[in-house]
Every structure is written in C-alpha cells, then in structure tokens.
Specification:
With 210 residues, the chain is α+β, with helices and mostly antiparallel strands. Among the domains are: 50 residues, Ribosomal protein S4/S9, N-terminal domain (Ribosomal Protein S4 Delta 41, Chain A, domain 1), CATH 1.10.1050; 94 residues, Structural Genomics Hypothetical 15.5 Kd Protein In mrcA-pckA Intergenic Region, Chain A (Roll). The protein contains 10 helices and 5 strands. The chain has a 5-stranded antiparallel β-sheet, with helices on one face. Strand 4 and strand 5 form a beta hairpin. The chain is globular.
C-alpha cells in the first residue's frame, strides 16, 4: 500500500498521469482525477507560490521522463549520452531509445497494464523476440521484430487481463498487435509525433547541457 501511495504522489507532483500503476490509472480512482494538485499539507496553496526557476522546470521534466519509463538515474543518463551522439535532434533520439525498450514495447502492445509490470514479465522470461526468449527489459527492438508470449505463458493472467482492458488504451501507429495470436510487430521506428508521452524533452536536454 505504501508503494502504491508513493506512485500516486509522483503523478500528483508531476501534475499529470505517469501511468505507474495498473488499472487504477485508467479508473476514476486515479489520484490525478481526484486531487489534481501537488501532495502534502500545503499542496493546494503551493500552486500559487512564486515563479519556478528554469532549472527547476528542467529538473522536473527530467524526473518525470525518468519515472514514466521506470529508470534509474545512471541508466537514464546513459540513454541521454547515447542520444547526444546521434545525428539529428537529441531529444527526439532520446525518446526513440526509451520507446524501443522491450518492456515499454510490451506495455505499448497491451501485454501489461504498466511499464513496471511489463519489466517484471520480461525479466521472468515470458516474452520472445523473433521466436527467441529475451529476458532483458532494456533490449532495443527494431523494425520487423515480432514480440510474443512464450508458449507456456499464453494464459498469463496479467497479459490476458491487460489485452482486454479496452477503453483508455491506444496502440501506437508504429506497432501492430494480434491479440488472438498474442503477437505484436514493430512496424517502424517511432517518430516523436507517434509518442504520446506528455513531456518537454528539450527541457531534459537543457538540464544535461548545463
């Protein structure tokens, strides 16, 4: 229960849904739906306080993005450094790296109700990529890859329940899924306009560029 409350507080602190929990994020019980102001005794008054500095705003964006994808600070910075070495816009490259993680793809395909749950399922070896078992959550998928549940995991309750959740979930354009066959396919690399994560990635780049 304490961990659940901490996750809800993170969403309220960020001011938007981070989808850190399972079905609760899609229900009226979501903390943002019930109390759309920062946590704490003075949370409601805190919204009207003095202007927040640019550094604080950039730090907030970085923390939001890190928590959305359920990453530690060091791992998140490694992704940023790799993105900064790529040609093009660093922020978009960073978002693409994060979206291509296998745990995120499992979540996006609808095989898990939250990224934390997806990471656990991947780590337990329930998923395959192109027919081969992969238990590394940070594995980066490529166009043409086929992600599926292993033969012994087809009736896995979390996956079955998640695939039937319906309302509140939308499949990204760069992925396709066959719920009956329990298979998903990566159609292309994700473009920024195909990623619905509400974040100012430019602020994240500015934070690390200080």
């Amino acid at each position: 229960m304490a961990r659940d409350m901490a996750q809800c507080r993170r969403c309220r602190r960020a001011g938007l849904k981070l989808y850190l929990k399972n079905g609760r994020c899609y229900s009226p019980k979501c903390a943002i739906e019930r109390r759309a102001y920062p946590p704490g005794e003075h949370g409601q008054r805190r919204q009207t306080r003095r202007k927040v500095s640019d550094y604080a705003l950039q730090l907030r964006e970085k923390q939001k993005l890190r928590r959305i994808y359920n990453l530690g600070e060091r791992q998140f910075r490694d992704y940023f450094e790799e993105a900064s070495r790529r040609k093009g816009i660093t922020g978009e490259a960073l978002m693409q790296f994060l979206e291509r993680r296998l745990d995120n793809v499992v979540y996006r395909l609808g095989f898990a109700a939250a990224r934390a749950q997806a990471r656990q399922l991947v780590g337990h070896g329930h998923f395959t990529v192109n027919g081969k078992s992969v238990d590394i959550a940070s594995y980066l998928v490529r166009p043409g890859d086929v992600i599926g549940l292993g033969e012994k995991s087809r009736q896995l309750p979390p996956a079955v329940a998640s695939l039937s959740r319906g309302e509140g979930w939308r499949l990204p354009e760069w992925l396709s899924v066959d719920p009956g066959a329990m298979l998903g396919r990566v159609l292309s690399l994700p473009r920024r306009d195909q990623i619905d994560t509400e974040i100012d990635e430019a602020g994240v780049v500015e934070y690390y560029s200080r």
